[in-house]
Amino acid sequence: MGRAPCCDKANVKRGPWSPEEDAALRSYVERHGTGGNWISLPQKAGLKRCGKSCRLRWLNYLRPDIKHGGFTEEEDKIIFSLYKTIGSRWSVIASHLAGRTDNDVKNYWNTKLMKKIMAAGETINSPAANSQITNKFHHPSPSPPATSPPDQIPVMKAEAFLPPATLDSNFPYSLEPYPLPQLPAEFAATGYSLSPPSDDLSVSFSASSSSITMDDSEGAYFNQAAAFFPDLGFSSWTELLGGFITSGVYQNLYS
DNA sequence: AATGCTATCAACCGCACAGGT
DNA sequence: CACCTGTGCGGTTGATAGCAT
Fold first, then answer.
1. Where is the Myb-like domain (predicted)?
2. Rounded distance, CA A17 to CA A224, Å?
3. Among A26, A140, A191, A228, which one is least packed by beta carbons within 10 Å?
4. What's the pLDDT score for residue A85?
């Protein structure tokens, strides 16, 4: 038996809230509080709404201390910093921003801030990204890479960080190294290896597969990287390094 | 002016968890 | 200890405003 729904969907109103509904909810909560029970609140407040819907409306819109409108540069920094540290735990991130809700922060990140950061050449490496890469390795590979000793070992270098000079001068964040994803044991067994960021903040990638072909000019981009990891299911540096590197220059150090 | 596309954000959904019984 | 219920959370959807063609 499945869990009973939280409310009778046939008898509750859905969709955007009217000013009258907002007024009724605000008035009730200001006079009585939530009473610790959102489920029974709509009936007491004379609203034909689901309790969860009332809670969401109050927390995200009607609460008196809610701050609407644009995010400041300082808030951008806090969000970015916390995202890199804890990932998409929006409620935790929002708790560090006075008057902001998790929904607000989430929407802002997804629609504006991530693009702003990407456009500036920054990389975003969150714990969530690391778990994605780990999960990917746990999927069975259709066919393992060749294990015979390679004739040559191409070494690819991914510039995980662009030098500050290439950034938009208005970009507020400093560049700092981040730890590489935790790669599982299966990865080492394939003959591939990933080196930690070096002094110049780049990441080196070594591979033993002779199927890898790169020209020796600077600037090999994603379309060429698509041949990197067919057996592992990776089609790009973006996927390999956690799904967030979408810009940068990839250089072949071997000719 | 009409149409299509994109960005934004409010709202919903389903799941996990905590606390009560 | 198992079950039930309410709450909180993150992911996703859908409406629509604004922009481009």
1. 9-62, 63-113
2. 50
3. A140
4. 80
What's the average pLDDT block by block, 10 residues per block, for chain A (255 residues)? 56 87 90 82 89 90 85 89 85 89 90 81 57 32 28 28 28 34 45 38 33 25 29 41 31 22
Q: What pLDDT does A127 receive? A: 55
Query: Which residue type does A71 have?
Result: F
Which nucleotide's C1' atom has the smallest distance to the CA of A51?
C6
Nucleotides of B under 7 A from a protein CB: 7-14
Please tell me the class of the A73-119 domain. Answer: mainly alpha
Judge: domain A9-62, CATH 2.40.50.140: no
CA–CA separation, A2 and A11 (whole Å): 20
Distance A73 CA to B10 C1' (A): 24
User: From CA A114, how far away is CA A166, in angstroms rounded?
Assistant: 18
Amino acid at A82: L
